[in-house]
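Z., the sequence and structure:
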Amino acid sequence: MLLADPRELRAQVPAGMRLLGLDVGTKTIGTALSDTRLVIASPLLTIRRHLRFRDDATALLALCDRHGVGGLVIGLPLTLAGRDSPRTQSVRQFARNLLALRDLPAAFWDERLSTAAVTREMIAADMSRKRRAEIVDRVAAAYILQGCLDAIQRSGC
């Protein structure tokens, strides 16, 4: 079930369950996991996209089962002007297809410049280009998920 307001996730996710953050790209899906109190996001892993959606969904749903995930936060790649683009529509369709396989509470979170922000931090930390390429998607997913978790905490929901 797609929620209109990401802050509604706290009420929809059963106690003791986690949120899975997703940074859905064309070649990879970065994933991040919250703690059970829905306070802290941690990078999890990067999934290489397959040719078939079903294979991507199987990998994501296995992560949900393995880590006790009760909801999703999906990064939405809006344009800098805050509008939809073909990429945005692709992510929305990905979410609809995934939720058709398993009905989880899910919300979109604005991911504008998330990859750029985490890349800047990794460069500032003098991380090699090779290492940045290996982890940027999962760190971006954690950045997206943390933004949503912070909003949930501020709202007191």
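The chain has five helices and five strands. Residues 53 and 97 are 8 Å apart (CA to CA).

Let me know what you think.
H.
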